[in-house]
Each structure stands twice: as structure tokens, then as C-alpha cells.
Structures
1.
Amino acid sequence: MSRIDAASARSLIAANPDVLVVDVRTPAEFESAHIDGAVNLPLDQVDAHLRRIVADAGGRMLLICQSGARAERARTALDAAGVSDLAVLDGGMNAWIASGAPVTRGRPRWTLERQVRLVAGSVVLASVVLSLWIPAAVLVAAFIGAGLTFAALTDTCAMGMLLAKLPYNRAGGADVEAAIARMARRPSRDAA
């Protein structure tokens, strides 16, 4: 099982209380809305602590992000490192919320996708306007367009990764130690 829809995820969580929901979004996105009982382990922290996660992990994990792309990258990294019994919520929190599933809400924050649209659109608009006086400024708009095209083709986003590091997106911070500890305390399905 690698990708599951929101209805299947709800059934999985209800049927198996040992399923650990791991939310790989930024702490700010997690604070806005998350699945009750989920742990926040941002994608960059998954990569940074991969060895510890692999050594300590046990049991089934449901990986989630905003749309599914970051969770899929986390699944790929964890799977390649030897962690099994992983599932990705297809469509992420967007699909979870759209299905009417319950969420724990906090202070509203902009998602990374929305922030990328704001920054990219602002840079393109500013460079096009600036190109009225400095014609070469249109090259900045072309660069952003090329970057967005590359992001779509590779399902990665350098701008999103940079924005994730801003203090706004780190607000509240993820308790990485607590998240990894919760992974370690869970029973392994192989032991059952």
C-alpha cells in the first residue's frame, strides 16, 4: 500500500490506533490544520534524521502533506532506507479536508503552495513592469517561468523549499525529538 485516498485513510486510522500519522509540512502549515494525533516532522527533518528514523521506526505510518508531493518524497526516502509499511495520503490535507474528515485547527497560515504563487507572481509582475524602463528585466520573469515549468515537470519546487526555511514557516517549530520518539515507541507489525 503506497497511496490511499482520504476515506481509506480514515478507515485505516479508525481500525488501527497504532497507525502513526506523520505530517511532513512546515510547522506553520501543521499549526493551521492537522489530523488529530498527527506528529509534525517537516520534510527537511525527515532527510536530516533519516538514520534515526530507520533505526527506531516500527509499525504502520501514514505520511501526509498539503497535496501529496512532499509526503511522496518522504515515502521514497524512507522506503529506500528500509522503512516499510508506509502509505501516503493521496491529495494530502487538501483531500482530507475536502472529504469532510475532522481536523484540528489552529492559527490560519498560508500553505507553501500559496506562498509560492504569491512570490512567483509578484516577481513576474514586478519584472515585467520594470522592463518598461529596463528591457533586460523581462529575463527575470523568464527565469521564474522556467523555474515553475521545471517544478511542475519534476514535482519539486526550489522556491517552496526556500520559503519553508523562513521564520514564518518555522513558527512554533516542530518537536523533532518528540516525533522520532513517537515513532520508536510504536509496536512493529512484524513483532505481532
2.
Amino acid sequence: MTTPVAGVSAWNLPNALTVLRMLVVPFFGWLLLAEDGQNVALRWWATALFVLAIATDRIDGDLARKRGLVTDFGKVADPIADKAITGMAFVGLSLLGELPWWITVPVLIREWGITIMRFVVIRHGVMPAGRGGKTKTALQSIALSVFLMPLWTFPQPDLWQALAWVVMAAAVLLTLVTGIDIALKALRLRRTSDRAAMKRARRAAADGR
């Protein structure tokens, strides 16, 4: 876990890349959904924009760590940006009928439920994305990238579809497992944080009067 450096401004290049990743979400959605997703050129542009947005996740994280620009804003905003771009891909593919809603809905509930939970427990401490979450995001990104491509134009499209489904199945499984793990960590943080200890101490002092 990288600790935020005291006095570092949130206005820095890594955070700017994170915000930029959020801003491209509607443009990515438009490219994906235009002409019912059947325009080959637009599907390639949508795929390219998705891959580029996902790539900035690694870039901004490396920059923040190497240059000592880690901030609480970045640690909270970075996973939100990831969820925004991948969430748009899940929803868009389901709207096009290329990905079942029974996959998209549980994934979105997990992703945004965890995000809301991070804000609920932020008074006790910031919960950055862990290795499991990063692996989950990587698997989701690979699977979604393949689904986003105009696979019907590929030689042996069924083989590519099968590959995409194998990676997606692994991503969904890891998504649910890491969601449970993060929820347990949040509960533990609420019990063991300095804020919780102070509340217990005040309560004990009040009971001892």
C-alpha cells in the first residue's frame, strides 16, 4: 500500500490522467452504441479508446508512485474511473445484446456497491485498490476488449468468442470474490481504526462517570 505524501497537491499529472479517463466515458459509449454497434470502424475506435483509457490506469499509478504524487484523491478517484469505463462497456455490450444482463447487473452492483462502501468508511481511512482488485480489473479489461472488437469480421469468430467467454468467466468470479474480501476489510477497518478506538474510549469514559 502506498501512503499519500503530506502536502502533495491533488492538482498533478497522475490525477489529471484519472480525471481524463472519466471524461472519455461518454465518448466511448457513443462510439460503441452508434448504429447499433454494427459499424466496424466505430467498433474499432471504441475498442481503441477503451484500451487507451485502461492503459492510463497503469501510467497514472506508476507516475504517482515514482514521483511521490500519491494523494487521497487519487486513491479514491482511480478505482472510480476504472469502474466508470468498464461499467460503460458492460452496459453498452448488454444494450447491444452481446453480453447477458445477468452478468452485467451483478458486476455493476458489486463495483458500485464497493465504491459507495469506500465513501462510507472513508472517515475511518482510505481503502485503496489491492492486488486482487487490480487483477480483477485486468481480467475484465481483457475480456471486454475482445468483446468490443467486431468479432464477426474475424476469421474463426467462434474461437474468439470462446476465448472472450473464458476470460470473462474468470473476471466475474474474481469480481465477486474480491468484493466479499473488500467488504470484510471495510468492516474490520471500522472496528480497528483510530476513529473507532477514540469513540470506544469516549464511550468507556462516559460509562465510568
3.
Amino acid sequence: MAERPYVLLSCGMSIDGYLDDASGERLLLSNDADFDRVDEVRAGCDAILVGASTIRSDNPRLLVRSAERRAARMARGEHPDPVKVTVTSTCHLDPQASFFTTGESAKLVYCATPALEKAHELLGPVATVVDGGDPVGAARITDDLATRGIRRLMVEGGGRMHTQFLTAGLADELQLVIAPLFVGDSRAPKFVHDGVFPWGPSNRAGLAEVRQIGDVVLLRYALSTRFTS
């Protein structure tokens, strides 16, 4: 069996741990310099994963923006954009979302078994639908991605996806950007949900880097022995 991908979690959050506010409009938690850093990280990955709720709320394109980085990927024999991956339990997804309609890289949808038939009918023309189990499991996803040649996976959210990969012990690295603001609204989405995490008082995560990027701070944590600096 192929080795599972190196899993890097990337997240921007407020000082009080929120990914967004509850206004319905996307809250920008970073700045141009950090967006460029994230673009560089994306360019070094084989696939980018977001949950279905992130597609519904943010309509992300998940493309490498820099022309130079796209050219470098092609020079290495890679597609200019990483493979796009999403996870859904209900297949409540719009096939016209930017996730599906932008870029020419492969799109993978890991769908819970009960919604598989619906997913094939709705998304089959725009993506490859994969049975993710019931419920969809992070280990099953990483195992399947490994068979597809994915060596480095970037998980960009949302909170359910972060929680699932962290509690399953499948994250090798966390890149956490802290924005200088508070949201202060418990209705807003948080970085992680309740769960049993491998890192606690008796097993603290390793802090590998602290970097100021304009008015935000990047914290990089090593979460496994596979961590690469």
C-alpha cells in the first residue's frame, strides 16, 4: 500500500478562534503578503481539500494564482493547479460552484455512501465521485488519495475537516495564522469543534516557527515525526 500523503492543515482565524463571522459575508482574516504565502504553499502541494460547507459559504476557486509558480509546476511535469478535493455527507453541492468550474485539474468528491447515487447524478459530469464510507472517514480519504499518487495534501477547512484530520491523528503539520481581531459571536464557525485530540497537556504540539507577516502572525506546528521544515 502507498504511504499516506503528508497532510498540512492551513487556517486563518481571529484571536478568539473563529474562521469567519456570522454576517453572511466572508470575513478577510489575512493580508496580501500572507495570501501570497498561502499561494506558495498551495503550489507545493499535490491536492487541496475543503469541506462542502466551505464550498457553499466561500465559493473558493482553489487555484495557484502566481504565473511563475504555475510555470514551475508545469516545468516539473505537474498540472498548473493541484487536484481539488471535497467531502460531503449529503451532496448538497452546486455543480456550478467555482470549485467545479474553474481550472482544469481533477476534482474529487468523497461522498457518504447513502448519498452516493445522488452525487453521481449531480456531480458525475464535473467531478470524480468516490465512496467515502458512512460516515466519511479521513483515513479512507488519505488511503484513496495515496493510490492516486497524492503525496502532499493541503487541508484548508473548514472546522469539521480540521477537527476530523486532527482527532484522527492524520495531520503532520499545522499552519495557523492569527488575525488581530475578535469576532465574539458563538454563532460563527470556529477553527475546531469538540473532540479528543492527540495533543494535550501531556503531549504538547511542537512549535516549529513563529513569523510576523504584516499585521498577522503565522504559527507552524509540527504534529508528527513526518514534519518537514
